[in-house]
Design goal:
The protein has helices at residues 10-22, 46-52, 68-85, 98-109, 129-140, 149-157, 171-184, 207-210, 213-227, 238-247, 250-254, 267-275, 285-294, 309-312, 323-336, 352-363; strands at residues 2-7, 30-35, 59-60, 90-94, 114-119, 143-146, 165-167, 199-202, 231-235, 259-262, 279-282, 298-300, 316-318. By secondary structure, it is α/β, with parallel strands linked by helices. The protein folds into two domains: 2-170 and 348-363, Rossmann fold; 179-336, Rossmann fold (3-Layer(aba) Sandwich). The strands form two sheets. The chain has a seven-stranded parallel β-sheet, sandwiched between helices. The protein binds uridine-diphosphate-N-acetylglucosamine. Residues 9-11, 38-41, 44, 65, 71, 96-98, 129-130, 205, 237-239, 242 line the site of uridine-diphosphate-N-acetylglucosamine (UD1).
């Protein structure tokens, strides 16, 4: 049985890597990696292939950047052409990026079953492009692989059939657990003269934070406050870098002492930096989960999360625009010491990839 595994943007690569890592156990399955090219810079894409030991994609669709409509349409057009000539038995998509929904639509209309890995997550904020991608993808997927209990509830509420919904855990955490030790050996923080626990790890790329200059300015003011208390290591996403340059805010950030603005880092470097951070400050979805699994406190610069288990069972606090709360949490974390918390999220045990391929190999056979 041939499965097209779709990856296009940075957070997809570590997720699909968990499937390739266990594929040998399922001889009746052939995984074909399709790279849509949504992310194309070496440090947003290639570095993940080398870090994760991913195979070379069988097909690169080379779509690049564009508006939502252009990017989604390009992925659809190019993936459809591939499928017409090389029909798979199933198309597997992960996460919530534009490539996810685009390939799910193409496969579904050609009557190819679709599997969605990381199904059922909902922020209930339709202003997020990812929320639209999640809802649409789940509504046309035949296999819904879920990471946390909220996903089961959301899919049931939306009327998806119970037999299509499978709680399997989280492929991203599979890869995190597999790579954690190797990542720790890199001691990346030493490049900045730091020891474990001596810095905050920061990422930010959501349109709601970086595309609005007022919001971006407010966040920079708060980072100025934070940087007086602890060093900040901040790999800057290309979208964020563009906005900082366009608005002239980059110079304000660059003027901060104790602020290390660096290019986007590879997967192993990121895991090393997160695992040894005193805290994570982010608007990423994946980092809320990775920091929760590693027991590192996470302050999320958003007013909703589609991953509520990171709050109830993990280490996450939603800050929204409550900067008093931000300062209270930072102060408490700095007072607490740098010991990692212990978290145990059900099914986040490193075996999600195996569960997914077992279900597919049994049900599609
Ligand atoms: C995309 C995903 C988002 C995910 C994020 C992770 C969607 C709707 N959004 O957002 O869910 O959290 O990836 O990074 O799919 N750019 C480069 N080089 C690249 C890629 C992008 O310079 O390799 C720049 C371009 O200016 C581009 C901009 O970043 O226009 C945004 O890229 P895009 O893929 O549209 O969205 P992200 O913000 O990366």
């Amino acid at each position: 049985m041939i499965i097209d595994v779709i990856a296009g943007a940075r957070p997809n690569f570590m997720k699909v890597a968990a499937l390739f890592a266990v594929a040998d156990q399922f001889p009746n399955i052939e995984l074909r990696l399709i790279h849509t090219g949504q992310h194309y810079d070496a440090n947003m894409s290639d570095v993940f292939f080398s870090d994760l030991g991913l195979p070379k994609p069988i097909r690169h669709l080379d779509v690049g950047s564009g508006s939502h409509a252009i990017q989604t349409a390009e992925v659809m057009t190019r993936y459809e052409q591939w499928v017409m000539e090389n029909r798979p038995d199933l198309t597997l998509v992960v996460g919530d990026v534009n490539s996810t929904v685009a390939c799910a639509i193409v496969a579904s209309k050609l009557h190819i079953p679709v599997a969605h890995v990381e199904a059922g997550l909902r922020s209930f904020d339709r202003a997020m492009p990812e929320e639209i991608n999640r809802v649409l993808t789940d509504s046309i997927s035949d296999f819904l692989f879920v990471t946390e209990p909220s996903g089961m509830i959301n899919l049931a509420r939306e009327g998806r059939p119970a037999e299509a919904i499978h709680m399997v855990g989280h492929v991203m955490i599979d890869t995190l657990l597999r790579m954690r030790e190797k990542a720790a050996e890199l001691l990346v923080y030493q490049r900045y003269g730091k020891h474990p626990g001596e810095y905050a790890f920061m990422t930010m790329h959501r349109p709601s934070n970086v595309d609005d200059p007022t919001q971006l300015g407010t966040i920079i003011d708060q980072l100025a406050w934070l940087s007086q208390r602890i060093a900040i290591i901040f790999p800057v996403h290309p979208r964020t870098r563009n906005r900082l340059n366009e608005t002239g805010l980059m110079s304000r950030l660059e003027a901060l002492d104790n602020m290390y603005l660096i290019d986007p880092v590879g997967y192993l470097e990121a895991v090393c930096l997160v695992d040894s951070a005193r805290m994570v400050v982010t608007d990423s979805g994946g980092l809320q989960e990775e920091s929760s699994a590693l027991g590192v406190p996470c302050l999320t610069l958003r007013d909703s999360t589609e991953r509520p288990i990171t709050i109830t069972e993990g280490t996450n606090t939603l800050i929204a625009d409550d900067w008093d709360l931000f300062r209270q949490r930072v102060t408490a974390i700095l007072d607490e010491g740098s010991e990692h918390a212990t978290t145990a999220i059900p099914y986040w045990d490193g075996r999600a990839g195996e569960r997914i391929l077992r279900i597919l190999s049994e049900q599609l056979a």
